[in-house]
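note to self — DONT lose this again. spent like an hour looking for the file last time. sequence + predicted structure for the chain T wanted, 350 res
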Amino acid sequence: MSTIYVRTLKRAEHTVFCVADGQKTYYDVQFDRYIPFSSGQQVKRSIVDAISNALNEVPSPTTFLFDVTKQKELKEGEVYGTCDPSYADQLFGGWMKAAKGGKDRTLKRRSPLSISAMRALHPLLAGVSRENISFDRSDRPNNEVIVRNADGEIMTEEEISAFLEGKDRSLSRKWIPNNSRATGLFVFDIAIDLRRLFCVSTSQLEPEITEETIVKLRENGWIDTKNAFGECLLAPLALREKWAKALAYAIVNWKITSNQSRTFSLMDTLAIAISDNANLIGGSIRAKLSEENSEKAQPIIEEDMKNVDTFISLQAGGFIQTKGEKIDALEKAEQKLIDLMMAFDYGNQL
């Protein structure tokens, strides 16, 4: 086994977790509905942030480059990370550094974590509601109100009063119409490539890291070995144990952490399925159309599927008919992931 597949079922309640004119949605052709989702990139960022939190480490720094043009204007340049696997968020998140001008070699590491979008378990089991809200501070006497005229000049209080005559309008309240909120059962999948999880290629034909970084890693105890992709450096055992625990914790416990998230929801995990078979993992947590009413779908968790380990939390029983809820289900899922990651023979892959 060189790949671990994980499917996670979460519940979101009246929340916003990916923004594009309100909650981001896609259109489902078969069921003629708009379905809320969170992009795989946002899920990945949240997981990587959770890894840093679990390790109690500051994430790796990011370099932002800008260019000043001859017209004295600021132009966007490149953005890249450290390209240093000593940082767990870099090792698991991957990187791409293509310097301007072509003088420096392009560095590229594909993340060992392939992460899907978080989407509805079934189009009939998630949806979007809309509401009108207001930002109201009309009860505060110390508000400052500034009104600009058509020329951009600030109007006096007398001019504002004259302008408002005959208009039913408050200047201490903002009306925000048509806000969308997501609710339902959501699922996402992760494939963990164990061959590259703790290994970094040392090839300089398609480099992942610089020669200077290779020297530094060797000095820090990284081990020369080989995998299916060629010569590589393997993180020392102590780091593998530490990072495997953090990764397992992050996969089970992550929450949306980007600044796009508002209207807080616990987004609690209802069930996790783990397997080395991608086809089985797809059927372990699924939904089925109701035989009596084609406008309804029933969520299903296969509790005893061969070659799949399924972990069901207590709150799942409130939404899905199950018998195997456990108070320590998520802790057991974490430990299962740790055991699988640590059982792989990283130093003798060939």
